[in-house]
Amino acid sequence: MYSPTTRLLTILELLQSHHQMSGAEIARRLEVSARTVRRYIVMLQDMGIPIEAVRGSAGAYYLRRGYKLPPLMFSDAEAVALTLGLRMIRTVEMPSEVAAIEGALAKIERVVPEQVLEQVRGVQGAMYSYGAPRPSQLRVRFVAQLGVAARQGRRVFLRYADLSGNLSSRAFDPYGIVCHEGNWYTPGYCHMRSALRIFRIDRIATLDLLDEPFVRPVGFDALQHVISAFATMPGAYSVAILLRGSIEQVRQVLPPEAGALEETADGVIWRRETNELTRTAQLLLSLELSVTILQPPELSEIMRGLAAKALRIADRQR
Question: Which of 2, 185, 231, 277 is buried deepest, with most CB atoms within 10 A?
């Protein structure tokens, strides 16, 4: 928690979502003292918020029945972050939530100012995903700027850090925003290299929108470009899996971008290059086909670890 205003709003949200909550629990969540919580409660009551107190050693607070919070206000960055989050939830393919997500996105578009609307639409129109994201140092501001640049066809100037942390500067034409197996990328034309390049967004140190226009190649598919690039890029691990089934059966359960398939007398060998084996192991667990790991041995160790974890969870009793 940060400012007193933020803490006051947080208390309101907590009381709105719970029948009642003790002062000690509120203090724990806000990381403040119980005395500070009491002071905030008095401040809210002075504003006319009908907060009632339950007396006793474990005193608690609750909102009077029927009270609803006024409409929430979001900053520009918060509106873009919400859009980014909703877009990612939509890629998880939960059919029951599609209408709610689309409704929320439409409401955001209706109420945000014009300059924020362009960022929101930029993120929506330029973002693609293959695999859920993982926590990173991603800057939402850069995602918004790249979305606007891709949507409007505007060149950007960025400083980028390589794996060793060395910075280089370049003009770049972003063709989209892609979340691929947990990391965020922007594919496009690099003017320093005079070629198509893919940059990890969390390695961008600075980024500025320029007034120089560019024309995105007709038919360019940002998602497929990133997927194809990583499928042929040497990784830390060369994976080979024997799947017992026909090539048609395997194609039904593995997307084309998952890797190369080789039909043999024993089944289908699935090959791919990757820097991270856990996601491959999780995918194998979801397959109904018989699976034999040919390489690497590290993948077998990860599978054993997942199996042990599953057994611990299954055997755990309340």
Answer: 185
CA distance 73 to 31: 24
b or e along 211-244 (b: 16 or more beta carbons within 10 Å of the residue's beta carbon)? eeebeeeeeeebbebbbeebbeeeeebebbbbbe
Q: How many CA atoms lie within 13 A of 275 on its CB side?
A: 9
Angle between helices 76-91 and 98-111 (to 10 degrees): 160
Domain 234-315 has CATH 3.30.1490: no
Q: Which two tokens stand for residue 55?
A: 């007396």
Task: Tell me where in the chain the CATH 3.30.70 domain(s) lie.
Answer: 234-315
98 three-state secondary structure = helix
- Strands 177-180 and 127-130, how do they pair? parallel
Encode pLDDT of 137-150 as tens digits: 667 788 888 988 99
Token pair of 4 as six digits: 């007193």
Cα–Cα separations (whole angstroms), residue 295 to 136, 205, 239 = 29, 37, 5
Among residues 287, 288, 293, 193, the alpha carbon closest in space to that of 237 is found at 293
pLDDT band at 113 (very low <50, low <70, confident <90, very high): confident
Report the chain's C-alpha Rg in angstroms.
25
Backbone angles phi, psi at 194, to 5 degrees: 55, 45
Q: Are strands 167-174 and 237-244 parallel, antiparallel or unpaired?
A: unpaired
Q: What is the pLDDT of residues 48-57, one digit of tens each?
A: 888 888 887 6
Instruction: Give backbone dihedrals phi and psi of 317, rounded to 5 degrees, phi first.
Output: -120, 150
Q: What number does CATH give the domain 4-63?
A: 1.10.10.10
Contacts of 162 (CB under 8 A, 6+ apart): 168, 203
Residue 292 has pLDDT above 90, yes or no: yes
Residues 6+ apart with CB under 8 A from 265: none
